[in-house]
Write a structure and sequence with these properties.
Number of domains of chain A: 2
CATH superfamily of the largest domain in chain B: FAD/NAD(P)-binding domain
Distance between the termini of chain A: 29 Å
CATH architecture of the largest domain in chain B: 3-Layer(bba) Sandwich
Largest interface: A-B, 20 and 19 residues
Oligomer: heterodimer
Distance between the termini of chain B: 9 Å
Number of helices of chain B: 8
Shape of chain B: elongated
CATH topology of the largest domain in chain A: Rossmann fold
Radius of gyration of chain B: 22 Å
Structural class of chain B: alpha/beta
Shape of chain A: globular
Helix content of chain A: 40-55%
Radius of gyration of chain A: 21 Å
CATH class of the largest domain in chain A: Alpha Beta
Largest sheet of chain B: 7 strands, mixed
Helix content of chain B: 25-40%
Strand content of chain B: 25-35%
Structural class of chain A: alpha/beta
Order of helices and strands of chain B: EHEHHEEEEEEEHEHEHEEEEEHEH
Chain lengths: 396, 355
């Protein structure tokens, strides 16, 4: 299989050399110092883990298993195949994980969109979730890009402000929870990045004819940016390698487009107070540009807001005759499809609004057959024969 | 016994001026320069003309080099580095190693002038949205200087004269996000100077400068800023550039025109990033070797700043030029004079005391 690397090669004759000396101070010294002083417990990344390179060269530990899945409000609510695909991948790779039921929203959307809430409340919400993970013995892994970015900012605040730590400690005391900070804050797409070769080894579908444009999520690599994964061989180390490396690992073609740096349009505040702006930005500045410059079969991204905005905004664009019509999904769904996942039972693409069936055909998936199988599932649910689908149903 | 020799570290404008003045005083001095040639950044990075008087950089630096070398009391060690230092004011033991063959010697000096300068901010480390490592037609001020010096200012990817050129100010400066909150002081003047030179060399090119606010100190206002607009029709646009993308075979600069209060998209052939100053590798290394305090940006800290701008945290060690923070040439040369004077005064005073 030939993987077309051209899009991720730098187009310039210049070569960027990593400059580790400019890296912000590694927060771990401070993290462990606070543990030594009794301020909190640092939950260690469980073994086995994979070390990946971050923006300035620091190695970040990504746990393979024993993961506590901090889910995303928007994923579970609107694109449920996203989180199901993550769990499906864990199962197929034989990794132990927990899908907890006592996790709360991180509440960062309010924080970023309208500056409601306050630092102590935000930090307490995060620390309660970390404590809940710690109590299970599993390590938190964050599905949502915003929760991930936000928790990293919370970590910074807590490390540097004793007063805030004390306020949060009082809250934790009332809740009867310990003060716990994970050794690393890990996004699920980093886990996929870390296991991408294992995914490729179990691949059952040929993706060599699939052209992909990648939208890197702002809250993944623009918040506490030194913590995001970079690779000198991917975009010359000038863009995050997460997602692109995964797409390459399963043999699909990454195609480049000029507005890669732009937000998907969600924009947090915009989706709440200027939705028209979000819709037009998503279609005109992202999807239309991708179509015009790269003509991809699918857009792959790694955050809730990005999948939702890029996908569902196209419905409006279609109504106005714009050059849209590219399916959008997460790296988790894409990887699961590569490994043979069911497009409806696992990836639940019927929740996505842009026409995805031609893509499935190109992937060699008989979507009519798959849909008929899914309809049979629904009949069983409707008749009361089953209350919900199980993992056994999914792999039937 | 106090040494009667001053050590100058760095052979750029500040080091050369210190050497010239110490030589004129008949003071014994040793100048150590890591590169194999004197002249510092203006020579190494092929500056075209100096800001603000448009004097040919090579000619001006050669004049300074000749003046510094004219005095027999100054000993020049090129291709050499300071690797160790011990002792105190009046009696420093400094180990100097030749870069090529690794041979070393230890010299005894009474005082030291650090003139190790700056390096340009690398736009690949941050500000990746400007695409310096993605598009050859995105260049830096230093890249532009080289082309202007050769009188061949072209669109790099095509080799032809550009029709539209713009400068983006404050790249790597005044940026809290990346930790460089300071103004690099010279970029506004250099961009305006280069804009004039581009208009002189490529008269058909339209030239734009996108800025947060232009910081044209003192006479730069009348010497560069107004002539750029009135004689050379350089267009200054107040606004923040958010990204540079490619459209076809051209670049498109996107941002906000804050005067007009609206977004803008402007096609360009060449984009020049006005990269700011950061301490050079040599400045950071020498600070450690000499045990000098550095500020949060890793420039050498000047404890008393305004009233004693060449003092460092170590008695007997003085600093001149951009090793102490962003400096224009005027300030650099003035600092070099002051540092040379203080370094010479110290060894002479100690000589008198010990006599």
């Amino acid at each position: 299989m030939t993987i077309p690397y051209d899009a991720v090669n730098t187009k310039s004759s210049r070569k960027f050399e990593l400059q580790a000396e400019y890296a912000p101070e590694d927060f771990h010294d401070h993290l462990f110092e606070l543990e030594h002083e009794g301020e909190w417990i640092v939950q260690r990344v469980p073994e086995p883990y994979v070390e990946v390179m971050t923006k300035f060269g620091r190695k970040k530990k990504i746990p393979l298993e024993m993961t506590w899945h901090h889910k995303s409000c928007g994923q579970c609510g609107h694109i449920p195949g996203y989180s199901t695909a993550i769990f499906w991948l864990n199962r197929k790779l034989n990794f132990k994980y927990i899908d907890p039921t006592d996790q709360t929203s991180c509440t960062a959307w309010n924080y970023y969109a309208s500056a409601t809430s306050n630092a102590a409340a935000q930090a307490s919400v995060g620390m309660r979730n970390f404590a809940a993970a710690y109590e299970t013995g599993y390590f938190p892994i964050i599905h949502c890009g915003t929760s991930y970015g936000h928790y990293k900012e919370v970590r910074e605040q807590l490390m540097h402000h004793a007063e805030l730590r004390h306020q949060v400690r009082d809250v934790m005391k009332k809740l009867g929870k310990p003060m716990v900070m994970p050794e690393e804050i890990v996004h699920y797409s980093e886990w996929i990045h870390a296991v991408r070769d294992r995914i490729a080894a179990l691949q059952t579908r040929d993706f060599s004819k699939i052209a992909v444009t990648v939208h890197p999520a702002c809250h993944y690599y623009k918040l506490v940016q030194e913590d995001a994964i970079y690779d000198p061989d991917i975009y010359g180390g000038q863009r995050t390698a997460t997602v692109s490396a995964t797409v390459m690992a399963v043999g699909a073609e990454v195609r480049d487009y000029s507005t890669w740096f732009d937000c998907c349009g969600f924009g947090f505040r915009h989706i709440l107070v200027q939705r028209d702006f979000t819709r037009s930005f998503a279609t005109r500045r992202k999807i239309e540009v991708m179509k015009e410059e790269a003509n991809p079969d699918v857009v792959i991204t790694h955050d809730t807001g990005c999948v939702t905005t890029l996908d569902k905004s196209q419905f409006v664009g279609q109504a106005h005759g714009l050059n849209v019509g590219v399916p959008v999904m997460s790296d988790a769904q894409f990887a699961a499809l590569a490994m043979g996942a069911h497009p409806y039972r696992v990836c639940q693409l019927h929740w996505h609004s842009t026409e995805y069936r031609p893509l499935l055909e190109k992937m060699g998936i008989d979507h009519e057959k798959a849909w008929a199988e899914f309809q049979e599932d629904l009949k069983q649910l409707k008749s009361g024969e089953k209350q919900y689908l199980t993992w056994e149903d999914v792999d039937a | 016994m106090a040494s009667d020799t001053v050590l100058i570290i760095g052979g750029g404008p500040a080091g050369l001026e210190a050497a010239r003045l110490l030589g004129d005083l008949g003071q014994k001095a040793i100048l150590v320069e890591k590169r194999d040639a004197l002249g510092g950044t203006p020579i190494a990075e092929h500056y075209a003309a100096l800001t603000h008087n448009f004097r040919d950089a090579e000619e001006a630096m050669n004049e300074l080099i000749a003046a510094a070398k004219a005095n027999p009391t100054v000993d020049f060690r090129l291709g050499s580095e300071v690797v160790e230092c011990s002792g105190a004011a009046g009696d420093f033991q400094v180990k100097i190693v030749r870069s090529g063959n690794g041979t070393g010697e230890t010299v005894n000096v009474g005082s030291i002038v650090v003139a190790t300068g700056f390096q340009h901010f690398d736009p690949g480390r941050e500000t990746q949205m400007y695409g310096y490592y993605e598009y050859d037609d995105v260049i830096t001020l230093a890249d532009a200087e080289k082309m202007l010096k050769e009188h061949k200012f072209v669109t790099p990817s095509k080799g032809t004269p550009p029709q539209r050129v713009c400068f983006i100010q404050c790249v790597g400066s005044r940026d809290r996000q990346i930790g460089n909150e300071y103004c690099s002081k010279v970029c506004c003047g250099i961009s305006s100077k280069q804009a004039i030179e581009i208009r002189q060399q490529v008269p058909d090119a339209k030239v734009f400068i996108f800025y947060i606010d232009m910081r044209m100190y003192g006479y730069w206002e009348n010497e560069i800023y107004w002539p750029a607009q009135e004689q050379y029709h350089v267009q200054y646009v107040k606004g923040i550039i958010t990204e540079i993308i490619r459209k076809g075979d051209r670049l498109v600069v996107r941002g906000e025109d804050t005067t007009m209060g609206r977004p803008m998209e402007v096609p360009m052939d060449v984009v020049v990033l006005a990269v700011g100053m950061e301490p050079s590798r040599g400045t950071k290394d020498v600070a450690k070797i000499l045990g000098l305090k550095q500020n949060k940006y890793k420039f050498i800290e000047v404890p008393h700043d305004m009233l004693d701008p060449t003092a460092t945290s170590a008695p007997g060690i003085f600093v001149a030029g951009a090793a102490a923070g962003p400096k224009d040439l005027d300030d650099t040369m003035a600092m070099a004079g002051a540092a040379a004077m203080k370094a010479a005064a110290l060894v002479r005073k100690l000589a008198r005391v010990s006599a």
